[in-house]
Input
Amino acid sequence: MTAIAISGILLSCSSSDTEEYSDETKKIVNMMSEPRSIQLTDEQKIFVVDNNGFALKFLDSANRANPSGKSYIYSPLSITYVLGMVNAAATGQTEQELEETLGFHKGGIQAVNDYCKNLIENLPKVDEQVTLDIANAIFVNQNKAKLKAQYQQEMQHYYDAKAEALDFRSSKTLDHINGWCNDKTKGMIPTILEDVDPDMISYLLNAIYFKADWSSKFDPKNTRKEAFTTESGTTKQPMMHQTVLINYTHNDTFAAVKLPYGNGMWNMTVLLPENGKSTGDVISAMAGDNQFLAQHLDNAMRPHEVDLKLPRFDTTSDTNKLLEGQLIGLLQRMGIKLAFDMERSQIPNMCEDRNLYINIMRQKAAIEVNEKGSEAAAVTIAGVTENSMGPIEYPKATFHANRPFVYIISEASSDVILFVGKYTGE
Output
């Protein structure tokens, strides 16, 4: 299964093979399956914790702004990349607000760029069985502005973002931008714009694609339509079923399992509210603690033999369908104000002879979860304009996700959150 992000390769040989693998070949095959941890500086480790704090606060804000009862998925990391590219051209209070809200505090532009470059280069390498693609692009209105040479060089170096000058008055430009989205997300997000504003100075985009197989796949023969309780009643959902040894924890608010992909470096953590609690209660608890992943999940989880049921589902989201001001309004309430202010924004270092502000911002995301694995994708756009032990008996647990739940897709060595979502059955 794929998430805008990951794909895998399996190598095998049968006992009837007449030719033995060489020691060197065996070594290469073993290396392919070994986890590769991301190396972070002490400052970057703090960035991860606090950018995850932004991710969970964003989840809380998006949950409140979503139409009641609807499933959704978002990628806060995709938003971080687009705003990171904006931040690289910002100064003064505008830069400070961006960095504070995203969890970079007063690290400065160089530190933020170094952090983003580290993740772009190394997140896709932690598991050869998983496909993760992170892409960035800058499309500039050739009739309105020209990127500063230094900014263009920095975006290529730190974000691998190729800048293109296009005629925003041509219908081909819309096809080109949407074609970039379609290509970078393997068709999961075919479009991001309905039209191109000829007065826009530039569009900055990020795309994340993730595709991975479960470490322990569900047998389709065990999938049955069973009752799933939604906010509006009970429906029948295709429920996947297996008994598997995985990490599990529970407390007064939720029970949680961690479902590994590939070699275990990528995981989907599913949080199921306890009786009397709601997904909103779970999300509020998550948003109130930057250390939530470490303290309440990673450190609390223990291996259990889990009787696991999980619905097979797919979800698409568009921040243009959020209530109360869409994505810009949500980010303004989280603390980023000046970057969206035509009069007071300080983004002078992107284009020659131009001070810019963010005029539009949007994210589309999608996920599909099935017996094989998960596939997910997200595209975020910002338009700127001027302005060795014996047998062990493991405890047993039952985890039947037959009512609305929250989920996170994250990487184990860094704890970086890629996607956050809620599935309600609707």
Q: What stands out?
A: Residues 1-33 have pLDDT under 50 and may be disordered. The first helix runs from residue 23 to 33. The longest strand covers residues 233-250.
